[in-house]
């Protein structure tokens, strides 16, 4: 029974992440006011990969996503604070983050990265800083949800192991 | 990790694998992101494909030129030490004719063309989905069977 409740909580959280609308103003303009959830269907693909052979798969992927994203965000911030900005280097970091967010289904982070790239191509330092701010906002918003999800996953796993 | 990575592919039974491919297939996953290597290897494992991993293009070239053969290489674009374009070019120059599928977050047409020109068979934008991977593997399998 307790296990069922934990699973319901986790599934409810994931459902809300697909459906909560968090699109920021400029993203709305860019994407014609399409309502977007924090997650897209790519996350379903990841969920489908978790099986009895790898019960901690989702947790591990999310932890790696957070580690790699925070490292990249740090690099972006560092490079943007230089007097002369190397836009080629910044572009490569933005693509890393865009790829990672696309692969976990973090679509608002991915869209914020696309916004950043636009500013990067125009060598627009101020635009890049604004875009970085937006990426940070979207990233920390989804990280907070992911943290709750991991806690629920850990409780589910612990409960399942204990009652096997 | 890297060249010493273990070969895995145990998520699918022998009978289930028959429904996807007629041959036992192997793949090399090349990406500097540990998260991507983990996801791509898991996707391959669910299709019964054994895989090895490399953290950058140079490591991938070294593995392939050491004599290790694969049926498919999943090649990232942006990587430190050696990027996906240079690695693909070097592999082709050295006679490696394995199917190489570029996997990149870059979405501009000219970037895709540039990557393709290095010698890719195909290029897909991240995320790599099960459907995209299955399609590439079926192409490899069909060539092996013909």
Describe the secondary-structure layout.
The complex is a heterodimer of chains A (164) and B (146).
Chain A: H1 2-19, H2 25-30, H3 42-49, H4 57-80, H5 87-104, H6 107-121, H7 125-162
Helix pairs in contact in A: 1-7, 4-5, 4-7, 5-6, 6-7
Chain B: H1 14-20, E1 26-30, H2 34-46, E2 50-54, H3 57-65, E3 72-76, H4 84-93, E4 99-104, H5 109-117, E5 122-125, H6 130-145
Parallel strand pairs in B: 1-2, 1-3, 3-4, 4-5
Helix pairs in contact in B: 3-4
Domain Response regulatory (chain B): 26-141
Modified residues (4-aspartylphosphate) (chain B): 76
Organism (chain B): Stephania japonica
Describe this structure in words.
The complex is a heterodimer of chains A (164) and B (146). By secondary structure, chain A is mainly α. Helix content of chain A is 77%, strand content 0%. Chain A has 7 helices and no strands. Chain A is elongated and about 60 Å long. The model of chain A is unreliable at 23-34 (pLDDT under 50). Chain B is an alpha/beta fold and 146 residues long. Chain B has one domain (2-145): Rossmann fold (3-Layer(aba) Sandwich), CATH 3.40.50. Chain B is 44% helix and 17% strand. Chain B has helices at 14-20, 34-46, 57-65, 84-93, 109-117, 130-145; strands spanning 26-30, 50-54, 72-76, 99-104, 122-125. Chain B has a 5-stranded parallel beta sheet with strand order 2-1-3-4-5, sandwiched between helices. Chain B is globular and about 35 Å long. At the A-B interface, helix 3, helix 4 and helix 5 of A face helix 2 of B.
Task: List the defining traits of the structure above.
heterodimer, A: 164 residues, mainly alpha, Four Helix Bundle (Hemerythrin (Met), subunit A), 7 helices, 77% helix, B: alpha/beta, 5-stranded parallel β-sheet, globular, disordered N terminus, phosphoprotein (chain A), transmembrane helix (chain A), cytokinin signaling pathway (chain A), HPT_dom_sf (chain A), nucleus (chain A)
């Amino acid at each position: 029974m307790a296990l069922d409740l934990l699973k319901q909580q986790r599934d409810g959280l994931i459902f809300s992440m697909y459906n909560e609308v968090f699109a920021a103003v400029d993203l709305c303009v860019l994407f014609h006011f399409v309502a977007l959830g924090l997650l897209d269907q790519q996350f379903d693909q990841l969920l489908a990969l978790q099986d009895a052979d790898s019960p901690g798969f989702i947790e591990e992927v999310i932890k790696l996503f957070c580690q790699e994203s925070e490292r990249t965000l740090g690099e972006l911030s560092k490079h943007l604070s230089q007097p002369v900005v190397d836009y080629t280097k910044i572009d490569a970091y933005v693509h890393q983050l865009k790829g990672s967010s696309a692969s976990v289904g973090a679509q608002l982070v991915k869209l914020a990265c696309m916004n950043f790239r636009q500013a990067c191509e125009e060598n627009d330092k101020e635009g890049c800083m604004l875009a970085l701010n937006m990426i940070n906002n979207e990233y920390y918003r989804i990280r907070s949800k992911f943290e709750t999800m991991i806690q629920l996953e850990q409780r589910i796993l612990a409960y399942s192991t204990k009652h096997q | 990790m890297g060249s010493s990575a273990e070969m895995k592919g145990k998520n699918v039974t022998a009978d289930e694998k028959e429904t996807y491919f007629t041959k036992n297939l192997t793949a090399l996953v090349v990406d500097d992101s540990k998260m991507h290597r983990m996801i791509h290897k898991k996707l391959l494992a669910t299709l019964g494909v054994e895989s090895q991993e490399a953290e950058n293009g140079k490591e991938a070239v070294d593995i392939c030129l050491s004599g290790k053969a694969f049926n498919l290489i999943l090649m990232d674009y942006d990587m430190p030490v050696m990027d996906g374009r240079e690695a693909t070019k070097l592999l082709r120059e050295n006679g490696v004719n394995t199917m190489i599928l570029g996997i990149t977050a870059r979405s501009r047409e000219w970037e895709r063309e540039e990557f393709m020109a290095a010698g890719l068979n195909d290029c897909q934008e991240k995320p790599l989905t099960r459907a995209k991977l299955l399609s590439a593997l079926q192409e490899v399998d069909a060539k092996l069977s013909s």
